[in-house]
Amino acid sequence: MHEGELALTDDRAARLIAQTFPELAHLPIERVRSTGTVNTIFRIGDDLAARFPLVAESRDVLGAEAAAMAELADVCVVPATRPVGLAAATEEHPSAWSIQTWLAGVAATPAGHASSESLISDVSGLITALRSTETRGRKFDGRGRGGVLRDHDEWVALCIERSAHQIDPDRVDRLWSSLRDAPREGADVMSHRDLTPFNLLVADGRLVGVLDGGGFGPADPALDLVAAWHLFDARGRSVVRDRLRVSDSEWQRGAAWALQQAMGLVWYYESSNPAMSGLGRSTMRRLLDDPDLANL
Protein backbone atom coordinates (compact mmCIF):
# COMPACT_ATOMS: atom_id res chain seq x y z
CA MET A 1 0.00 0.00 0.00
CA HIS A 2 2.93 2.36 0.62
CA GLU A 3 6.30 3.11 -0.94
CA GLY A 4 9.06 1.48 1.08
CA GLU A 5 6.72 -0.99 2.74
CA LEU A 6 8.51 -3.62 4.83
CA ALA A 7 8.09 -7.30 4.02
CA LEU A 8 7.45 -9.53 7.02
CA THR A 9 6.92 -13.27 6.92
CA ASP A 10 5.02 -15.17 9.59
CA ASP A 11 8.20 -17.04 10.58
CA ARG A 12 10.19 -13.85 11.03
CA ALA A 13 7.44 -12.26 13.11
CA ALA A 14 7.26 -15.31 15.36
CA ARG A 15 11.04 -15.29 15.75
CA LEU A 16 11.16 -11.58 16.62
CA ILE A 17 8.39 -11.96 19.18
CA ALA A 18 10.06 -14.97 20.83
CA GLN A 19 13.48 -13.30 20.90
CA THR A 20 12.29 -9.98 22.29
CA PHE A 21 9.56 -11.22 24.59
CA PRO A 22 10.59 -14.77 25.56
CA GLU A 23 7.73 -14.99 28.05
CA LEU A 24 5.38 -15.05 25.03
CA ALA A 25 7.29 -17.67 23.02
CA HIS A 26 4.95 -20.51 24.01
CA LEU A 27 1.80 -18.75 22.76
CA PRO A 28 0.29 -19.34 19.30
CA ILE A 29 0.83 -16.53 16.78
CA GLU A 30 -1.53 -15.78 13.90
CA ARG A 31 -1.43 -13.08 11.22
CA VAL A 32 -4.55 -10.89 11.34
CA ARG A 33 -6.20 -10.05 8.02
CA SER A 34 -7.60 -6.54 8.24
CA THR A 35 -8.21 -3.28 6.40
CA GLY A 36 -5.41 -1.63 8.38
CA THR A 37 -3.09 0.71 6.53
CA VAL A 38 -0.35 1.33 9.12
CA ASN A 39 0.66 -2.00 10.67
CA THR A 40 0.97 -5.70 10.01
CA ILE A 41 -0.75 -7.30 13.00
CA PHE A 42 -0.21 -10.70 14.59
CA ARG A 43 -2.44 -12.02 17.34
CA ILE A 44 -0.52 -13.59 20.22
CA GLY A 45 -2.55 -16.06 22.23
CA ASP A 46 -5.95 -14.78 23.33
CA ASP A 47 -5.10 -11.43 24.85
CA LEU A 48 -2.23 -9.74 22.97
CA ALA A 49 -1.28 -8.47 19.51
CA ALA A 50 2.01 -7.46 17.89
CA ARG A 51 1.97 -4.41 15.61
CA PHE A 52 4.76 -4.15 13.03
CA PRO A 53 4.71 -0.82 11.14
CA LEU A 54 4.41 -1.20 7.38
CA VAL A 55 6.94 1.63 6.97
CA ALA A 56 9.88 1.84 9.37
CA GLU A 57 9.30 3.86 12.55
CA SER A 58 11.57 4.77 15.45
CA ARG A 59 11.17 3.60 19.02
CA ASP A 60 10.60 7.23 20.07
CA VAL A 61 7.63 7.57 17.72
CA LEU A 62 6.08 4.33 18.92
CA GLY A 63 6.76 5.32 22.52
CA ALA A 64 4.80 8.54 22.04
CA GLU A 65 1.98 6.57 20.46
CA ALA A 66 1.98 4.15 23.39
CA ALA A 67 1.66 7.04 25.86
CA ALA A 68 -1.29 8.45 23.92
CA MET A 69 -2.86 4.99 23.69
CA ALA A 70 -2.64 4.53 27.46
CA GLU A 71 -4.15 7.96 28.06
CA LEU A 72 -7.08 7.15 25.78
CA ALA A 73 -7.66 3.78 27.46
CA ASP A 74 -7.87 5.51 30.85
CA VAL A 75 -10.79 7.74 29.79
CA CYS A 76 -12.54 5.69 27.11
CA VAL A 77 -16.13 4.62 27.85
CA VAL A 78 -15.45 1.18 26.33
CA PRO A 79 -12.22 -0.85 26.34
CA ALA A 80 -9.42 0.62 24.23
CA THR A 81 -6.15 -1.04 23.33
CA ARG A 82 -3.38 -0.63 25.90
CA PRO A 83 0.40 -0.76 25.30
CA VAL A 84 2.25 -3.76 26.71
CA GLY A 85 5.78 -3.51 25.31
CA LEU A 86 8.08 -1.90 22.74
CA ALA A 87 10.84 -3.46 20.64
CA ALA A 88 13.69 -1.60 18.96
CA ALA A 89 14.75 -1.94 15.34
CA THR A 90 17.38 -4.59 14.62
CA GLU A 91 19.45 -5.74 11.67
CA GLU A 92 16.85 -8.38 11.00
CA HIS A 93 13.90 -5.97 11.12
CA PRO A 94 14.64 -2.26 10.51
CA SER A 95 11.71 -0.83 12.45
CA ALA A 96 10.62 -0.58 16.02
CA TRP A 97 7.41 -2.46 16.79
CA SER A 98 5.06 -2.98 19.70
CA ILE A 99 2.88 -5.32 21.72
CA GLN A 100 -0.58 -4.24 22.86
CA THR A 101 -3.73 -5.78 24.26
CA TRP A 102 -6.18 -7.59 21.98
CA LEU A 103 -9.83 -6.53 22.00
CA ALA A 104 -12.77 -8.72 21.05
CA GLY A 105 -15.35 -7.47 18.57
CA VAL A 106 -15.87 -6.91 14.86
CA ALA A 107 -14.91 -3.71 13.06
CA ALA A 108 -17.86 -1.48 12.19
CA THR A 109 -18.70 -0.92 8.53
CA PRO A 110 -19.87 2.22 6.74
CA ALA A 111 -23.15 0.62 5.63
CA GLY A 112 -23.86 -1.88 8.39
CA HIS A 113 -24.93 0.52 11.14
CA ALA A 114 -26.31 3.54 9.28
CA SER A 115 -29.48 3.78 11.38
CA SER A 116 -28.44 1.85 14.51
CA GLU A 117 -29.95 3.65 17.52
CA SER A 118 -27.60 1.88 19.92
CA LEU A 119 -24.44 2.69 17.99
CA ILE A 120 -25.53 6.29 17.43
CA SER A 121 -25.90 6.60 21.20
CA ASP A 122 -22.60 4.86 21.91
CA VAL A 123 -20.56 6.93 19.44
CA SER A 124 -22.11 10.14 20.79
CA GLY A 125 -21.15 9.07 24.31
CA LEU A 126 -17.63 8.21 23.22
CA ILE A 127 -17.05 11.62 21.64
CA THR A 128 -18.51 13.34 24.70
CA ALA A 129 -16.14 11.46 27.00
CA LEU A 130 -13.08 12.22 24.88
CA ARG A 131 -13.98 15.92 24.70
CA SER A 132 -14.35 16.01 28.48
CA THR A 133 -10.75 14.89 29.06
CA GLU A 134 -8.34 17.57 30.27
CA THR A 135 -5.85 18.76 27.64
CA ARG A 136 -3.44 19.74 30.45
CA GLY A 137 -2.47 22.85 28.53
CA ARG A 138 -1.56 21.00 25.36
CA LYS A 139 -2.53 22.18 21.87
CA PHE A 140 -2.74 20.57 18.43
CA ASP A 141 0.71 19.27 17.51
CA GLY A 142 0.55 20.21 13.83
CA ARG A 143 0.50 16.63 12.51
CA GLY A 144 -2.27 15.52 10.15
CA ARG A 145 -5.88 16.55 10.64
CA GLY A 146 -7.11 18.75 13.45
CA GLY A 147 -5.59 22.18 12.88
CA VAL A 148 -6.48 24.71 10.18
CA LEU A 149 -8.64 23.41 7.34
CA ARG A 150 -7.10 25.72 4.73
CA ASP A 151 -3.72 24.07 5.34
CA HIS A 152 -5.13 21.07 3.46
CA ASP A 153 -6.10 22.90 0.26
CA GLU A 154 -3.26 21.41 -1.79
CA TRP A 155 -3.98 17.90 -0.53
CA VAL A 156 -7.67 18.14 -1.33
CA ALA A 157 -6.88 19.53 -4.79
CA LEU A 158 -4.58 16.56 -5.44
CA CYS A 159 -7.25 14.14 -4.22
CA ILE A 160 -9.86 15.72 -6.47
CA GLU A 161 -7.53 15.37 -9.45
CA ARG A 162 -6.67 11.74 -8.68
CA SER A 163 -10.30 10.76 -7.99
CA ALA A 164 -11.98 12.48 -10.95
CA HIS A 165 -12.81 9.12 -12.56
CA GLN A 166 -14.72 8.06 -9.46
CA ILE A 167 -16.36 11.19 -8.01
CA ASP A 168 -17.61 14.41 -9.67
CA PRO A 169 -14.61 16.73 -9.20
CA ASP A 170 -16.56 19.96 -9.62
CA ARG A 171 -19.08 19.05 -6.92
CA VAL A 172 -16.32 18.07 -4.51
CA ASP A 173 -14.40 21.29 -5.20
CA ARG A 174 -17.50 23.41 -4.60
CA LEU A 175 -18.28 21.60 -1.35
CA TRP A 176 -14.73 21.93 -0.02
CA SER A 177 -14.71 25.62 -0.92
CA SER A 178 -17.94 26.15 1.02
CA LEU A 179 -16.78 24.24 4.10
CA ARG A 180 -13.12 25.04 4.60
CA ASP A 181 -13.68 28.59 5.89
CA ALA A 182 -16.29 27.70 8.52
CA PRO A 183 -15.28 29.75 11.58
CA ARG A 184 -13.57 28.04 14.50
CA GLU A 185 -15.08 28.35 17.97
CA GLY A 186 -13.45 27.33 21.22
CA ALA A 187 -10.15 25.80 22.21
CA ASP A 188 -8.74 22.41 21.23
CA VAL A 189 -10.25 19.38 22.93
CA MET A 190 -8.94 15.84 23.29
CA SER A 191 -9.69 13.82 20.19
CA HIS A 192 -9.13 10.28 18.95
CA ARG A 193 -8.22 11.91 15.60
CA ASP A 194 -9.03 8.87 13.45
CA LEU A 195 -12.58 7.75 14.27
CA THR A 196 -13.17 5.65 11.17
CA PRO A 197 -15.48 2.61 11.30
CA PHE A 198 -12.52 0.24 11.13
CA ASN A 199 -11.22 1.62 14.44
CA LEU A 200 -14.53 0.96 16.22
CA LEU A 201 -15.37 -2.56 17.37
CA VAL A 202 -18.99 -3.65 17.70
CA ALA A 203 -20.88 -6.67 19.03
CA ASP A 204 -24.65 -7.13 19.05
CA GLY A 205 -25.08 -3.60 17.72
CA ARG A 206 -23.15 -1.93 20.54
CA LEU A 207 -19.75 -0.26 20.64
CA VAL A 208 -17.41 -2.60 22.54
CA GLY A 209 -13.90 -1.37 21.73
CA VAL A 210 -11.75 1.39 20.26
CA LEU A 211 -8.56 0.74 18.30
CA ASP A 212 -5.54 2.79 17.21
CA GLY A 213 -5.47 5.33 20.02
CA GLY A 214 -1.89 6.37 19.29
CA GLY A 215 -3.03 9.72 17.90
CA PHE A 216 -5.12 10.71 20.93
CA GLY A 217 -4.46 14.37 21.59
CA PRO A 218 -5.73 17.95 21.34
CA ALA A 219 -7.39 19.02 18.08
CA ASP A 220 -10.26 20.96 16.56
CA PRO A 221 -13.43 19.96 18.48
CA ALA A 222 -15.03 19.16 15.10
CA LEU A 223 -12.51 16.48 14.13
CA ASP A 224 -14.12 13.46 15.79
CA LEU A 225 -17.42 14.33 14.08
CA VAL A 226 -16.02 12.50 11.05
CA ALA A 227 -17.38 9.34 12.70
CA ALA A 228 -20.95 10.53 12.09
CA TRP A 229 -20.31 10.94 8.36
CA HIS A 230 -18.45 7.65 8.04
CA LEU A 231 -21.08 5.64 9.90
CA PHE A 232 -24.58 7.08 9.89
CA ASP A 233 -27.40 8.14 7.60
CA ALA A 234 -28.87 11.66 7.67
CA ARG A 235 -31.19 10.96 10.61
CA GLY A 236 -28.41 9.32 12.61
CA ARG A 237 -26.07 12.23 11.95
CA SER A 238 -28.77 14.62 13.13
CA VAL A 239 -29.10 12.73 16.40
CA VAL A 240 -25.34 12.86 16.98
CA ARG A 241 -25.36 16.57 16.25
CA ASP A 242 -28.19 17.22 18.71
CA ARG A 243 -26.68 15.11 21.49
CA LEU A 244 -23.33 16.86 21.20
CA ARG A 245 -24.99 20.29 20.87
CA VAL A 246 -22.93 21.10 17.80
CA SER A 247 -23.18 24.57 16.26
CA ASP A 248 -23.62 25.15 12.52
CA SER A 249 -20.00 26.17 12.02
CA GLU A 250 -18.64 23.23 14.01
CA TRP A 251 -20.84 20.82 12.06
CA GLN A 252 -19.55 22.26 8.80
CA ARG A 253 -15.93 21.89 9.96
CA GLY A 254 -16.64 18.28 10.89
CA ALA A 255 -17.96 17.73 7.37
CA ALA A 256 -14.83 19.36 5.97
CA TRP A 257 -12.57 17.05 7.98
CA ALA A 258 -14.60 14.07 6.78
CA LEU A 259 -14.18 15.24 3.18
CA GLN A 260 -10.44 15.75 3.62
CA GLN A 261 -10.04 12.22 4.94
CA ALA A 262 -12.50 10.48 2.62
CA MET A 263 -11.07 11.95 -0.59
CA GLY A 264 -7.61 10.64 0.32
CA LEU A 265 -9.01 7.16 0.89
CA VAL A 266 -10.84 7.13 -2.44
CA TRP A 267 -7.79 7.26 -4.71
CA TYR A 268 -4.82 6.30 -2.53
CA TYR A 269 -6.22 2.86 -1.70
CA GLU A 270 -8.20 2.26 -4.89
CA SER A 271 -6.11 -0.76 -5.88
CA SER A 272 -4.24 -1.72 -2.71
CA ASN A 273 -7.08 -1.63 -0.15
CA PRO A 274 -10.56 -1.67 -1.77
CA ALA A 275 -12.39 -1.66 1.57
CA MET A 276 -10.66 1.56 2.62
CA SER A 277 -11.30 3.15 -0.77
CA GLY A 278 -14.93 2.05 -0.49
CA LEU A 279 -15.22 3.82 2.86
CA GLY A 280 -14.02 7.00 1.19
CA ARG A 281 -16.62 6.74 -1.57
CA SER A 282 -19.42 5.96 0.90
CA THR A 283 -18.57 8.99 3.04
CA MET A 284 -18.32 11.24 -0.01
CA ARG A 285 -21.79 10.14 -1.15
CA ARG A 286 -23.18 11.14 2.24
CA LEU A 287 -21.45 14.50 2.09
CA LEU A 288 -22.49 15.27 -1.48
CA ASP A 289 -26.10 14.12 -0.96
CA ASP A 290 -26.66 15.94 2.33
CA PRO A 291 -29.37 18.60 1.75
CA ASP A 292 -28.05 21.00 4.42
CA LEU A 293 -24.57 21.05 2.92
CA ALA A 294 -26.02 21.46 -0.58
CA ASN A 295 -27.65 24.72 0.54
CA LEU A 296 -24.45 26.35 1.80
What does this structure look like?
There is one protein chain. With 296 residues, the protein is of the alpha+beta class. The chain has 2 domains: 10-101, Phosphorylase Kinase, domain 1; 106-294, Alpha-Beta Complex (Aminoglycoside 3'-phosphotransferase, Chain: A, domain 2). The chain is built from 10 helices and 10 strands. The protein has helices at 10-20, 59-75, 117-131, 153-162, 169-179, 226-231, 234-244, 248-268, 274-289, 291-294, and strands spanning 29-31, 39-44, 48-53, 83-87, 97-101, 106-107, 189-191, 200-203, 206-210, 217-219. The strands form 3 sheets. A 5-stranded antiparallel beta sheet has the order 1-2-3-5-4, with helices on both faces. The protein has a 3-stranded antiparallel beta sheet with strand order 6-8-9, covered by helices on one side. α4 crosses α8 (248-268), α5 runs antiparallel to α8 (248-268) and α8 (248-268) runs antiparallel to α9 (274-289). The longest helix has 21 residues, at 248-268. The chain is globular, with a radius of gyration of 19 Å.
